[in-house]
Design a protein that fits this description.
CATH architecture of the domain at 11-26 and 371-634: 3-Layer(aba) Sandwich
Number of strands: 38
CATH class of the domain at 11-26 and 371-634: Alpha Beta
Structural class: alpha+beta
Distance between the termini: 37 Å
Oligomer: single chain
Mean pLDDT: 94
Strand content: 25-35%
């Protein structure tokens, strides 16, 4: 999709009121989410999450020699796992066959793309599966299983064997709270896998184990290889010649290691992150292009890079690329594939010919083209926050060459709080951001203390301080931009989704800085979250806030729901009614509390949506309602018709 500019002469109009060609339809049209790359011989596979098909996730196969691609699974199949609720690791391509978890029934299916998928697990609703690998010698898949036995108070996680011809599953190992990343050695004799236990999350502390696979397919006694309660292990991987590699943050940064003579040896020491928070299964940042060559990506100072490592000499060769965000790295001797993005490019499936150094884009997440006249480029900023420490952000100035504001006017600012909260914002083309900046809003994405990408110490700033450090960093970022003449101090706004919604609500409740805000499936009651949330995050708040219920006082002190009388800024809430991570009662309770204080508030629920919006009509509605709400409460006249939302108190 492309569009014509609005003319060569500039129109003088207030910030926020500029007429933009980047409409909600433009943002949501022909958009897909891309994830989970797989290489299988000359074929590459990836997942496409399609908002236009109500969020259905489709497996796509591409022939690397021709770049032609085709769908592997027909309607209504949906390759998506619900293990840990967040899923990931929902498919596997091996020897021309594709195995996948179907979202509707949680069963595993197999297909070659020509015939209809056939089930290989039974129709019991109690089991979910993810992160599977093929054990060819025993004709089975090895997978992370999650048993939702109705006779037990919560799910049980374990590793299981699943015969590919059908039949009962076999429990391979259990006893830990969580399992991930089963990896089979090239000779099929050893299984490596990760475990962790409450109250840890996988970025806090995990353990890497290996176990022999016995002739009958059972596992021998597991041997602890690396990790612990204060060391996070990410992506174990066997090299083609049978050496176990993994990423560890034992020295403060997620660096690449390998096992030699029963000792973990660092492959490349660098103050950079070669790992990511394992919110979902199937994440990869490195792959082998032969026994002695590793292709890897890492992030440093907010940008991702690509490199090749000779594991014999230790020589590192940086690979030149225009992409600043890189994930899902896969490789063979001649090809490296990844999902790449940049400030000018949306997330795309990219193939790199390692011999010729040629990049080929196989699929773009969006067909929309934003011309330079309306393209706001991110400006990385580092600012001083609490206790003289530094924090980071990406600032996007207003940009629309068809308009200018009156001399001396400053733009309204949207402060975006990422979720997680152990996540990060990176500098890739985001049409949602351009939707705002092309209308004359400034936009900033804050990587507050606790964000990933700046080492373990920075990530741990949030321990015991959630609702304080993240909030203060967002406040200080907004005030710094206002002091530097990049934003109107009287029109600062803040919004976020999930954990970012909690940060936004705390900032609006406990500070008098922001004129308005928005919470997308955000947390308002920490105590309720501690009681209601799912197993994966059941003890997450013990580290972020304090042990519950022993420190219930802290939970209540930092919950906006108990201090609605302090909130004087208008807020709009967006909530999926099928959300199991942050249930709708959180938003409803906050809306009612604000109404009781006669504070302007709006509530926009979405039938059929969970934690995060997957449908194009939901995404469009959210964007337009968000704009309408901010225009109403900030006194901005909109030149374009947008869907209205009922605002209580206005």
């Amino acid at each position: 999709m492309s569009f014509d500019t609005l003319g060569s002469s500039q129109i003088v109009a207030p910030y926020g009121s500029w007429k933009s060609p980047i409409t909600a339809d433009f943002v949501t049209s022909q958009v897909v989410g891309l994830s989970e790359l797989h290489l299988d011989g000359a074929d590459m596979y990836w997942l496409e999450q399609r908002p236009s098909e109500k969020g259905r996730t489709v497996i796509v196969r591409a022939d690397l020699s021709s770049s032609a691609h085709e769908e592997v699974i027909p309607q209504p199949f949906n390759s998506r796992s619900r293990v840990h609720e967040y899923g990931g690791g929902s498919c596997l391509a091996s020897h021309g066959k594709v195995y996948f978890s179907n979202f509707a029934d949680n069963r595993l299916y197999v297909t070659n793309g020509a015939a209809a998928p056939s089930p290989i697990t039974d129709d019991s609703a109690r089991w979910r599966f993810a992160d599977f690998i093929l054990d060819k010698a025993h004709q089975r898949l090895i997978a992370v299983g999650e048993d939702h036995d109705p006779e037990r108070p919560g799910p049980t996680n374990l590793l299981v064997g699943l015969p590919i011809s059908g039949g009962p599953l076999v429990v391979l190992t259990q006893g830990h709270d969580f399992y991930a990343s089963p990896k089979l050695s090239p000779d099929g004799a050893q299984l490596a896998f990760l475990t962790w236990n409450h109250p840890n999350m996988p970025w806090d502390g995990t353990q890497l184990w290996t176990a022999s696979i016995l002739p009958d397919g059972s596992l021998g006694a597991p041997i602890l290889i690396a990790g612990g309660v204060d060391e996070s292990i990410f992506q174990p991987e066997w090299s083609p010649d049978g050496i176990l590699y993994y990423v560890s943050d034992r020295d403060g940064w997620w660096n690449l290691y390998r096992m030699t003579s029963d000792v973990g040896e660092k492959v490349w020491s660098k103050d950079a992150e070669f790992g990511e928070p394992q919110w979902v299964f199937g994440m990869t940042t490195y792959a082998f292009a032969g026994p002695d060559t590793v292709i890897c990506t890492y992030t440093h100072d907010g940008a991702w890079y690509l490199a090749s490592i000779d594991t014999i000499s230790g020589k590192v060769s940086e690979i030149e690329t225009t992409y600043t965000v890189i994930s899902s790295v896969k490789a063979n001797e001649h090809t490296c594939c990844f999902i790449g993005a940049s400030p000018r490019d949306p997330a795309s499936v990219v193939s790199l010919d390692l011999d010729a150094g040629k990049y080929t884009v196989l699929k773009r997440s969006s067909q929309a083209h934003v011309p330079d006249s309306c393209l706001s480029m991110p400006e990385p900023i580092k600012f001083v926050t609490s206790d003289g420490q530094s924090a980071f952000a990406n600032y996007y100035p207003p940009k629309n060459d068809s308009f200018s504001a009156s001399e001396g006017e400053l733009p309204p600012l949207l402060v975006a709080c990422h979720g997680g909260p152990t996540s990060a914002n990176y500098s890739q083309l985001n049409l949602n951001v351009q939707y705002w900046t092309s209308r004359g809003f400034a936009f900033v994405q804050v990587n507050y203390g606790g964000s990933t990408g700046y080492g373990r110490e920075y990530r741990e700033r949030l321990n015991g301080e959630w609702g304080l450090v993240d909030v203060q960093d967002c406040v200080n970022c907004a005030l710094t931009l206002a002091e530097n003449g990049k934003a109107d101090v009287s029109r600062l706004t803040i919004h976020g989704g999930s954990a970012g919604g909690y940060t936004a609500l705390c900032a609006l409740t406990f500070h008098r800085v922001f004129a308005a805000g928005a919470s997308l499936y955000g947390v308002s009651d920490l105590e309720l979250l501690a009681k209601d949330t799912h197993k994966f995050e059941a003890k997450y708040l013990d580290r972020l806030v304090g042990p519950y219920p022993e420190r219930v006082d802290i939970y209540r002190e930092r919950s906006p729901i108990y201090f609605a009388d302090k909130l004087s800024a208008p807020v709009i809430f967006f909530q999926g009614l099928d959300d199991k991570v942050v249930p709708p009662n959180q938003a409803v309770a906050m809306v009612e509390a604000l109404k009781s204080q006669n504070i302007p508030v709006a509530y926009v629920p979405f039938e059929g949506e969970g934690h995060g919006f997957r449908r194009s009509d939901s995404i469009k509605r959210c964007l337009e309602a968000h704009l309408y709400f901010y225009a109403a409460v900030l006194g901005i006249d909109l030149p374009q018709v947008t869907e209205k939302v009922e605002i209580y108190g206005i």
